[in-house]
Amino acid sequence: MVRLTRRYRFAASHRLHSNHLSERENREMYGKCNYPYGHGHDYVLEVAVRGPRDAESGLAVDQRILDRLVSEEVLGPLDHKNLNLDVPAFQDVVPTAENLAAEVRRRLGDRWREAFAGPWPVLESIRIFETKRNIVELSNTL
Amino acid sequence: MVRLTRRYRFAASHRLHSNHLSERENREMYGKCNYPYGHGHDYVLEVAVRGPRDAESGLAVDQRILDRLVSEEVLGPLDHKNLNLDVPAFQDVVPTAENLAAEVRRRLGDRWREAFAGPWPVLESIRIFETKRNIVELSNTL
Amino acid sequence: MVRLTRRYRFAASHRLHSNHLSERENREMYGKCNYPYGHGHDYVLEVAVRGPRDAESGLAVDQRILDRLVSEEVLGPLDHKNLNLDVPAFQDVVPTAENLAAEVRRRLGDRWREAFAGPWPVLESIRIFETKRNIVELSNTL
Amino acid sequence: MVRLTRRYRFAASHRLHSNHLSERENREMYGKCNYPYGHGHDYVLEVAVRGPRDAESGLAVDQRILDRLVSEEVLGPLDHKNLNLDVPAFQDVVPTAENLAAEVRRRLGDRWREAFAGPWPVLESIRIFETKRNIVELSNTL
Amino acid sequence: MVRLTRRYRFAASHRLHSNHLSERENREMYGKCNYPYGHGHDYVLEVAVRGPRDAESGLAVDQRILDRLVSEEVLGPLDHKNLNLDVPAFQDVVPTAENLAAEVRRRLGDRWREAFAGPWPVLESIRIFETKRNIVELSNTL
Amino acid sequence: MVRLTRRYRFAASHRLHSNHLSERENREMYGKCNYPYGHGHDYVLEVAVRGPRDAESGLAVDQRILDRLVSEEVLGPLDHKNLNLDVPAFQDVVPTAENLAAEVRRRLGDRWREAFAGPWPVLESIRIFETKRNIVELSNTL
Q1: Cis peptide before C121 (omega within 30 of 0)
Q2: Rounded distance, CA C15 to CA C128, Å?
Q3: In the annotation, is C33 catalytic?
Q4: What is the average pLDDT across F75-85?
Q5: E83, E130, E136, E141: which to substitute to probe chain F, counting the most F Cβ within 10 Å?
Q6: CB atoms D21 and A56 under 8 Å
Q7: Is A4 close to D98, i.e. CB distance below 8 A?
């Protein structure tokens, strides 16, 4: 059984602001990330999958399928976009790194079984590096 | 004579769109960077200065002065900001990495002599890493 | 449930030398790290915590609290310090990366519950990168 | 209990080509990695071990033993080599990152108990970074 | 006047072996790089150009043209290739990093004027990172 | 003509403190770097040389000679050492990055002609990365 991790990049902008909080609470909660016109990051996405090595090909996952899925479901909709304004999921949800990781997992998970047509590989974890210093992970084993 | 380079980071969003071009020309010229709601980067700024080593202190530049100047003139006004909407210089100027480097050099240059109170150090070059793959430099020696 | 990792840096010096070993045994055990006047590193610290995403804020941890705790308990006492001479815990304990990770975990753990005032987040693991090639981890799941 | 990870590098060339597949299937399966004369990478190897901290030395693993074992069993036989032509294990096995990780684990595992002469440390996982974007892990806990 | 640097990656294999030297001289000169079946690297290429900022677009170089030229002349012919066997220029020339940089400069230079259709930008320097530790540069100003 | 840069690493400790300054002036000038027991860094050294490509070997510098010279003159005397206490040059000279670069250049320069036995390569510049954010360069062209 092998864990394979692939790393992708996308640039996006966002603003952290919750409709459930007052202006003052927003500023206190999110600090500079609440500035009114937003800011941006070069996000790094790591997708980790688990599966058995195929005896013939020596591969644990068909990377062409994984790359196409990530491209269609994540990079296309998010790269060079404004998360708050371009992505429907963030109309009412604050685009924190935590929520972004959840949205990426949902997008990949919804088409996973159809894309790989079999029990393997399993989507194990999503990691978002918002910056080099702030990393969020969603995982089956948490 | 020594060259000293200090590296700083700031996160900002921008949109590349020129008022002198048609919608179609903008899309062709800037590609994904022209998407309507903007995107963002974790910019890296390198400021390179030149000066003699001080015989007593062994330093070529008083880093407290340099850091304060960069903080007041660059990081404060640009970090977690939208370059198009928050920075007056980019009201009519497209915030490309080239123009951003020029703006940073102008901001530091305007207060340089007053801040360092003497002929040294000389501000030699400004480098902006928009991403790891796209780097712009303005230098006295170009 | 989300795992959030934050990364910090500090520069410190140390010497690996055990009072329980002879001079010769110390040299054999620690090699260059036993040189008499010590040496230093730019340590990287990763603190990983686990908690549920808050529905309103979209955050799994209040980063202001975590950053303040790390600053007060780790960066203040260790940054630009000599681990052997400045840190009481290493008077009789060799400041290996393993022992340093344990000391950092103890320092954060002692004030964790008081600082976060609730069951979440849980302090999950401490990772110390002594160099890029030598990494030590203490974790609840080990 | 501590997890210690050490990182090593080696440069090697390989070609992905399976004798069980037709020319066309090979090209489809492996893409550019199937080009006839091979290509190469600067591989990064991470070896993670687990063990208790020794009370006297403060170390969880004798790094001299680990480094010697990795040098003799991995770096010597693989560094600056052609994986297909120089390494017997890849005569009939495709040198994918997955199979390379398995071969490294086998090589270290075969001599592990003899080298460390005791129950600790345990060899926990092998990670191969084929490139920065493609990472394979074999682990006891998978 | 602006210097713009763009960074590209390609994986290739090579063997350092000169027909003008004996077997023994080859081994002494090139060490492990002379092993008979070759090895490989993840090469990084930096192309630095110089030009004036365009007043309207704010750009110093049309990156679409540069990226296409590099893709056609360098990445296509070299990525995932064996430099000795796949690249005609290295039939009788040893594919050292120095010679590789010269070949890349020649390839870009031959089509530069035709591609950019004007005096700007000027191709200023080529840098090849063979590994992180070994970097070769060819420059107009050397 | 080629510029070749090689990168080396060493870990050392130091304290910035000038005998020509009062205690208070030292604290103001050097800040945390003046703490009494010192601290340390993982220094990166880049040595850049210039020379013609040899037509036969395709090399601009005999790396075995350069590596041996750096090992004997820099890494041996400085790695895992305390710059203030172990290095005679810093008995009365503050081991700032600026002075460290000058000391490294002096050490390499003193034996350069003897080591390379010919007019090429020329030692062009020394760069010291004290941290990722603070870089000092001494160069023939400054």
Answers
A1: yes
A2: 17
A3: yes
A4: 98
A5: E136
A6: yes
A7: yes
